[in-house]
From TrEMBL, chain A:
Residues 33-335 form the Luciferase-like domain. The lineage of its organism: Bacteria, Bacillati, Actinomycetota, Actinomycetes, Micromonosporales. This is FMNH2-utilizing oxygenase. It comes from the Bacteria. Belongs to the NtaA/SnaA/DszA monooxygenase family. InterPro entries: Diverse_substr_monoxygenases, Luciferase-like_dom, Luciferase-like_sf, NTA_MOA. Keywords: Flavoprotein, FMN, Monooxygenase, Oxidoreductase.
From TrEMBL, chain B:
GO terms for molecular function: monooxygenase activity. This is Nitrilotriacetate monooxygenase component A. The keyword Metal-binding does not apply. PANTHER family: ALKANESULFONATE MONOOXYGENASE-RELATED (PTHR30011), C2H2 FINGER DOMAIN TRANSCRIPTION FACTOR (EUROFUNG)-RELATED (PTHR30011:SF16). SUPFAM superfamilies: Bacterial luciferase-like. It comes from Plantactinospora endophytica.
Amino acid sequence: MPHPPLHLAVALDGAGWHPAAWRVAAVEPGTLFSAGYWAGLVAEAERGLLDFVTIEDSLDLQSTRPDGPDGRTDQVRGRLDAVLLAARIAPLTSHIGLIPTTSTTHTEPFHVSTGIATLDHVSSGRAGWRPRVSARRSEAAHFGRRELPELRPDRLDEPGYVQLVGDLFAEAADAVEVVRRLWDSWQDDAVIRDVSTGRFVDRDRLHYADFRGRWFSVKGPSIVPRPPQGQPVVAALAHSSVPYAFAAGSADVVFVTPSDAAQAEAIVTEVRAAEETVGRTGAPLRILADLTVLLDEDDSTARRLRDRLTGLHGGEFDSDAASFTGTPGRLAEQLGQWRRVGLDGFRLRPAVLPHDLTAITRQLVPALRDRGLFRDAYPGGTLRDLLGLPRPANRYAAVASA
Amino acid sequence: MPKQIILAAHFPGVNNQTVWSDPESGSQIDFASFVHLARTAERGKFDFFFLAEGLRLREQHGQIYDLDVVGRPDSLTVLAALAAVTSRLGLAGTMNATFREPYELARQLATLDHLSAGRAGWNVVTSSDAFTGENFRRGGFLDHGLRYERAAEFVRVARRLWDSWPAGAVLGDQLTGRFVREPDPGAFAHHGEQFDIAGHFTVPRSPQGHPVVIQAGDSPQGREFAAAEADAIFSRHGTLEAGQAFYADVKSRLVRYGRSPDDLKIIPGVTFVLGDTDAEAQERARHIRRQQVSPQTAIRLLEQVWNRDLSGYDPDGPLPAEDPDVSDRSVIAGRTRMHADPVDTARKWRELAEAKGLGIRELVIEVTGRQSFIGSPERVAGELDHFVQSDAADGFILVPHLTPGGLDEFVDRVVPLLQERGVFRTEYTTTTLRGHLGLGPPRAGRVTPGHVDAAGAAAGAGRPAVPA
Ligand SMILES: Cc1cc2nc3c(=O)[nH]c(=O)nc-3n(C[C@H](O)[C@H](O)[C@H](O)COP(=O)(O)O)c2cc1C
């Protein structure tokens, strides 16, 4: 095998990533809010030996408008909390990683840290976390604690907005720092159960996070013992230089959105440069390219489905990630080509669930395997193990023993 | 038909009631421990599983308290995971309203209700505790009265959010292409003293409509809040008389809110020790008390009354002759001070120790944390039943002293006796927690007539001592 096997994940959201997916999906749309629906999807992903699933989330209603609701009744609206969804699925699976999304703008870092740590405990080391910033005014209004300007695509280059985005990502970096400190705030061997001295824990192995920043301060230690992975996997979606720097400084995995192989190469170069700039130490970022996929037996059937979706949607579906329409075999070929520019793998966004997920697990995965690009069994272990990330030493243990 | 008993299983807490030194004591954090207790409770046809919460590790003398079990999972996350391994058991957890925002918590609870098909419950607690606040953006603020104002408004907002998607809002009609019946479902606006928020809730109406709301707090304000807003109250009144007085007081407050006595269940937290005979149970109870109060723990518990450093004292020696420090400075942080009049408590304890010739540890064993129900299964079943039939409670939140097996014996030996008496279900007859508890459909988020804050203030500001 010329390269290590590629990393393959799927991004789960609603009825799939195409806005008209629910119209053609072979599932009762009402079940989108049931545990069974999600458990079925993740079980299928695990059957395909995928590295992990991500679960989208946002603290407001889906909308086609950049900020605020759009009044449409013809698309999926409504969503469950992603961390709880991941926790609900954890006991029903045993190998696949679970990466829910939370907001760094509104959610308390302490709650995120304990929630993801708990997800790691209940999944025996398969938890990840995708921090995302909330730039929408409509989301902020649900909390009533800060005013944000309306998010308008035509104003993104204005200095005030550039400043705001910079601040949101700086705050996100602080949130990740706090969350990570709290994960380390218990050394692995903090619980001693020493009957002779009556002590349950050795408090010298518990540490204050003592974080003070521009947006918040957090004392610590966590209320949750260190998660099995030490540090659950942090994954960020990034489209431009500010989030690349955020990912380089804060994340373990980055999802990028190239439109073709040449752009993928340019992005990989930019991300690696960002790692240099921020002085990243430890394992390099795992770079996964996002791709929306619509798969079928042959190209023309796939195209027909796409045309049908376009008709139902009333237009081409517009997305931050590139779309692939065709056969799993051709997709395998394309992934093989793209990964040569230095990508570590892919996060596929199924256009229609479970249609395209099943095509991934039952056809794409075997096709990749035939090309020597994918494993034929789970190696066992944690999500970090699966991604080839070492279990990090505890930052405080190092200090304590120094 | 006799009153039916409500039973809940409390995961052992982070205090000295939980015995970690016993060879049978398991992990406080491994998911397997939670699965064991939840499945045991479900096997016993319990109404619900219950988790406490503390958002900062406790300290004494400015140091992390190391003698008790420390560390627990995030309540919501572990409850969501437990929904996967149980099918009927209610899943209730404590979530502090002071350090959360209504939009987010209402969303998480509605999610839990969906993911458990209608089994979610929320124990609303509040805190005025700046110590815990240091872990949060919001910080700690709120004085005692104000935190119930926040809690009451919080619950009202949560109910409004839970009502924001009408039943049947999700059509999902693939043919006509209508996913939701109306545009922009979940619209809400709330402009209050504590919260000023507006927008759209993202979670369709959950199976219970509103998750079960539980209240734990004993002050007049706490009782009034429960009467106005809660479906159940988690109390701490261990004796029959105290229980009856509390029961009568709280139930009498309901009428002011247009509610009937059945609308609010009173469920004290209790402990138990079983044995083949009453004598054997008493012997086990003594053994457990010694495990709960190690020599080191005895000194620390005494310090919580004396509010002084007593580390120089011999656990087997006499009680301190000096009086407690009654200044505002407290040696403990992260837990409630339990003694209203420490000087008086100290005097009584000294007298008792002298009269019975007890050293510090023996005295502490004598005066703190005696188990609520001790005896043969027959005796315990009889006493529990008597408590409920004589209106000292509607049921119990059982707090085992061992993780995770502390409820096994109760389920194997006491539950069948309660079933024989016809006071406890033999099979689940409903699927939701509201159903198990015999609660009607949730009341819409309404504005309460007698305002909690005003009524609470009228009822007096003095705090009763919580029986230790
Ligand atoms: C039985 C019982 C259980 C409680 N459990 C918790 C808990 O798990 N977490 C918490 O932060 N507070 C808990 N509390 C504390 C209450 O929320 C409240 O802060 C405290 O009782 C003081 O309020 P009060 O003056 O109204 O009694 C509990 C109180 C009682 C009576």
